[in-house]
Amino acid sequence: MKVSEIMTALEKKYGHEQEYLQAVREVLESIEEVYNQHPEFEKAKIVERIVEPDRIFTFRVVWVDDKGEVQTNLGYRVQFNAAIGPYKGGLRFHKAVTPSMLKFLGFEQTFKNALTTLPMGGGKGGSDFDPKGKSDAEIMRFCQAFMLELWRNIGPDTDVPAGDVGVGGREIGYLTGMYKKLAREYNTGVLTGKGMTWGGSILRPEATGYGALYFTNQVLKTAGKDIKGKTIALSGFGNVAWGAAKKATELGAKVVAISGPDGVCHIPDGITQDMIDYMLVMRSSNRDIVSMMADKFPDKAFFTAGKKAWSIKCDIALPCAFQNELTGEDAKELLANGTWCCCEVSNMGCRPEAIHEFQKAGILFAPGKAVNAGGVATSGLEMTQNASHISWTAEEVDAKLHHIMSSIHEQCVKYGRRPDGTIDYVKGANIAGFMKVATAMLEQGTI
Ligand code: GLU
What is the spatial distance between Cα 163 and Cα 341, in angstroms, rounded to a whole number? Predict the structure, then answer.
């Protein structure tokens, strides 16, 4: 396999799908050498098969807004790869959603889910619906209209959606309610991220952020550093940023920045518990502005319009918002300010140029598919609880999450150790995830 040849062929076919091509290139560049040591992969054309989704559903979603006007959106579900288990992955509601975005996310999800050690394939879905400024009633009507189409293609043992950007507990509630009504199936295992009293797993809301901090902590420990007292800048203020801020603070780090599409809030003394709680209010307001924090806590948080979290001096940068949110220029700014670690919490949060800058500077860097896998891993734990009609305690779930994040870290070390002893987490995560999916595909024949 030659990455350049595969990429040329894919670019010809999918030239306009930039995010998808970026995600595929990153994985193929990491695995090229190992792949070529396995002639059985080459013979079975594993790479040519693994980069294509099993299938993509596209559907129209029609709903009525509060003014009585009819609105039309597009809905999608990308069932990417089921070699390891049922399709599993979130739904993203965001105005920029395209098939390219969901293909990149489904591709990443396939390897991430493989890393969790749980039997889950990869999928992703969503809509170009923009939750910003929508009322609760509009959100509910949209979710119901979306599920009216999607329900036939999902199920607890076929495809299990969850949340992602723009889809949290409230949306999962409306989606699940409609699914039950349509399918007349009351096994609660068809979506994850559900409410605690109706099949949700304790700690699922916190899990992505908590898992990311457990992983970051291990990256630091392996490099002989301690997270206590370190400053952290994180982007976003949604569910993932919230969990990350909570656990980072609990571990003794100081979160000095959060950001939004409108700008950054600098929090020189570190975020406090009441500010962390207020992040939830900010998200559910659907206003999508971080300046709300500075309005609420004027003597603790200082807002600058149009600036990113990466303009604030910090030891550790944690992108928690959207793909490609950290550019090569941002990386240079962080490095100039002394940042020595970046763990991607968002999916593909860093542009390839940014990763290149970090690796060139020799700072610690870990990719999203390893760092943020605690979210989907806890979804996997929710599926297990649902299937066996039990619920575990917070301690039980947390212990399992810890164990899974450690095992992901171990896999990264196994495949990513450089000759000088340092760890290339990008290579480690990509090779470990790929080997599992590729081997499963090989063992299941040419299908
Ligand atoms: N959207 C999350 C992710 O990117 C979670 C998916 C899930 O829980 O299925 O991994």
Answer: 28
Burial (CB count within 10 angstroms: exposed 0-12, middle 13-18, buried 19+), residue 47: buried
Q: Please tell me if the CB atom of residue 89 comes closer than 6 angstroms to any atom of ligand 1.
A: yes
**From the CB of 88, is ligand 1 less than 6 Å away?**
yes
Ligand 1 centroid, distance to 23 Cα (angstroms): 16
Q: What is the pTM of this model?
A: 0.97
User: CA dihedral in degrees (51, 54, 58, 61; nearest 10)?
Assistant: -110
Question: What separation in Å is there between the alpha carbon of 225 and the centre of ligand 1?
Answer: 29
Q: Is 194's C-beta closer than 6 angstroms to any atom of ligand 1?
A: no
**Which ligand 1 atom is nearest residue 193's CA?**
8
Element (H, E) at 241: helix 239-250
What CATH number was assigned to the domain covering residues 3-186? 3.40.50.10860
Does the CB atom of residue 116 touch ligand 1 within 6 A? Answer: no
Please give the distance, rounded to the nearest whole angstrom, from the Cα atom of residue 295 to the centre of ligand 1.
32
Ligand 1: nearest atom to the Cα of 379? 8
User: Are 3-186 and 205-366 equal in CATH topology?
Assistant: yes
Residue to mutate, 115, 164, 404, ligand 1, most ligand atoms under 8 Å from C-beta: 164
Q: Rounded to a whole number, what is the largest CA-CA distance in the chain?
A: 64
Catalytic residue among 112, 124, 230, 246: 124
Q: Atom 8, ligand 1: which residue's CA is nearest?
A: 376
Domain boundaries defined on the chain: 3-186, 205-366
CA of 314 to the centre of ligand 1 (A): 27
pLDDT in single tens digits along all 447 residues of the chain: 899 999 999 999 999 999 999 999 999 999 999 999 999 999 999 999 999 999 999 999 999 999 999 999 999 999 999 999 999 999 999 999 999 999 999 999 999 999 999 999 999 999 999 999 999 999 999 999 999 999 999 999 999 999 999 999 999 999 999 999 999 999 889 999 999 999 999 999 999 999 999 999 999 999 999 999 999 999 999 999 999 999 999 999 999 999 999 999 999 999 999 999 999 999 989 899 999 999 999 999 999 999 999 999 999 999 999 999 999 999 999 999 999 999 999 999 999 999 999 999 999 999 999 999 999 999 999 999 999 999 999 999 999 999 999 999 999 999 999 999 999 999 999 999 999 999 999 999 999
Could you give the angle at which helices 18-35 and 425-443 cross, rounded to 10 degrees? 80
**What DSSP designation does 155 have?**
B
Q: Is 254 a catalytic residue?
A: no
Given the DSSP bridges, would you call strands 70-81 and 55-64 parallel, antiparallel or unpaired?
A: antiparallel
**Topology at the third CATH level for domain 205-366:** Rossmann fold (3.40.50)
Distance between CA atoms of residues 82 and 97, nearest Å: 23
